[in-house]
Amino acid sequence: MLGVDPGTRSFDVAVVEGGRVVAEVSIDTEAVARDPLTLLRVVDELEPDYVVGPSGYGVPVTRGDEVLDPRRFAVEVLLLSTEEQIEEGTRSGELGVWVYGALARVVEHLVGRLGSRTIFIPAVVHLQTVPWYRKLNRVDMGTADKLATAALAVHTYSYAEGVDYARVNAVVAEVGYGYSAALAIKGGRVVDGVGGTAASAGTLTAGALDLEVVAQVGRWGRWDVFRGGVFHGAGTYELEPLAKAFERGEEPHASLFKALVEGVAKDVARALVSTPKAEVVLLSGRYGRDPVLRRLLQELLEDLEVRPVEPLRGASRSKEAAQGYAALGEGLLGGYFRDLVEHLGVREACGTAVDYLTHPRAASLRERVLRSYVETVRNPKLCRSGGHLV
After folding, report:
1. Which one, of 58, 123, 305, 276, lies nearest residue 185 by Cα?
2. pLDDT tens digits for range 176-190
3. Left if phi > 0, otherwise alpha if psi is -120 to 50, otherwise beta: which for 284?
4. Secondary structure letter of residue 78 according to DSSP
5. CA of residue 196 relative to chain centroid, distance
6. pLDDT value, residue 341
7. SS3 content of the chain, % helix, strand, coil (to 5)
8. List of E strands, 50-188
9. Which candidate, 28, 26, 31, places its Cα nearest to that of 4?
10. Cis status, amide bond into 252, omega within 30 of 0
11. What Å distances lie between residue 13 and 1, 44, 289, CA to CA?
């Protein structure tokens, strides 16, 4: 089973067999966006039986042969975008558009070439283990890659501690190149989460904005979600200089670094409301292993243990999400991770990422995405009232 994690900085590939990673590759996202065959050649060389494709904002478990229109499915359902928005982003040269452009083209190619051997997975908002009242006016509670990371975290923490999945109570916090996220794990299941632009300021994204700012600015572009973060304030796209500035007390970079870390701590604290028995924070993402960030986060969360998500056996370079993607795929097909998949309730995921929007201004978005899902997927898995599968 091969998993593809579409990161803002890199596309990571991990091949999992029998509970361990047997191959892994990392490719710059820009290279994949310019030529998706760069990634597809890697997939062909690894010769996997199945591929868990990049799933963006998520979709109920869907096989490639169920997708009727791969391009529209990728753009409008997985990316919650339009062709016009992607074209606009491409013209702007915005860094974040690379991952959108690359993901859409890769999905097209994977479905076209592999058909039913391609699998797409849900995000946190699709899970029935998350009560519907926590989903109100929420879209990004943790995208598909964050769910994949959480799955990996539940498995490896359970293994390391020698406990059943049902005894895993934790917060999985990701500090990625673009976004941060915090997922609440209670009894080994994802029960809540905050991610992307709903979380605190990340390295690229401004995070949750005061609605007064939104109202005063007026018109926003699709790609503004990738702007206003810590990196933009610092004028750099690397975290290490900010960490060093924090160590030396050099402003304003020191405060920008602390803003990022305190934001993660606040997101973790928010998740603890939904999993109050948690004793550990499991860190993931490109910057989750930064020693300065981890030390400061441990100081802020003194009552919790802060440690990295453990990788699968055999892994040395692939990001956690790529391993999680592959693990979920193997479990969905009845392999090594089948008990993990069943415990997480991944098969029962339903609906779209925008089903729970209640603001009147969001009605057209909700209707547009639902229509796209119904028209691009054979036998769509819709939710009835209360967020349960129809």
Report:
1. 276
2. 988 899 999 999 999
3. beta
4. I
5. 8
6. 98
7. 45, 15, 35
8. 51-52, 62-63, 118-120, 170-175, 180-186
9. 26
10. yes
11. 10, 12, 19
| Distance, C-alpha 25 to centroid of its chain | 19
Closest alpha carbon to 280 in 158, 120, 170, 166: 170
Q: State the residue for tokens 């283990």.
A: 129
User: Cβ(200)–Cβ(263) under 8 Å?
Assistant: yes
Task: In whole angstroms, give the CA distance from residue 302 to residue 319.
Answer: 27
**Beta bridge partners of residue 388, listed in sequence order:** 384
Which domains occur in the chain, in start order?
2-384 (3.30.420.40)
390 vs 383: CA distance, rounded Å: 5
Residue 93 has a pLDDT of: 66
**Token pair of 358, please?**
């209640």
Residue type, 58: G
Within the chain, which residues score under 50 in pLDDT?
390
| CA dist., res. 113 & res. 128, Å (int) | 32
Residues 6+ apart with CB under 8 A from 295: none
Looking at the DSSP bridge assignments, the partners of residue 5 are 12
- The CA–CA distances, whole Å, from 224 to 95, 209, 235, 240 equal 11, 12, 17, 24
**What are the E-state strand segments in 196-290?**
280-284
Asked if residue 57 lies in contact with residue 139, where contact means CB atoms within 8 angstroms, the answer is yes
Q: How far apart, in whole angstroms, are the C-alpha atoms of residue 5 and residue 326?
A: 9
Residues 6+ apart with CB under 8 A from 27: 10, 11, 12, 13, 38, 39, 42
DSSP per-residue letters across 14-59:
EEEETTEEEEEEEEEHHHHHH-THHHHHHHHHH--S-EE---TT--
pLDDT value for 388: 57
Show the tokens assigned to 311: 């990788």
